[in-house]
Please model this.
Amino acid sequence: MTIKLLAIGKTDNKHLQALIDEYQKRLGFYIKFEFEIIPDLKNSKNLSEDQQKQKEGELILNKLSTTDTLILLDENGKHYASVAFADYLQKHMNAGMKQLVFVIGGPYGFSPEVYAKSNG
Model:
């Protein structure tokens, strides 16, 4: 199984980027892991919140295949302790899923279409 993390927008913080790179390297020893940044929208200042969510949603959905399991990371999500999260991942692995995709959305959250596609 592959775990993929999609994030809207990149960080300008060099220390945070170094930590991201280090954890990507560490994860590679245990599981196939991919991290992909979806660039911030250009001219987003000219868009309403709903328009921005819609456009970001289109970019997110274009990165998915029909067999992906989509998990959205937002303020409304479930909270897991480390062991419970490991169990959650193990259940998905045992179910034979090809790719588990976690998504960190933009500043206004996700579009209704992305929520409709999500599995958790």
User: Anything to note?
Assistant: Strands lie at 2-8, 32-38, 69-73, 99-104.
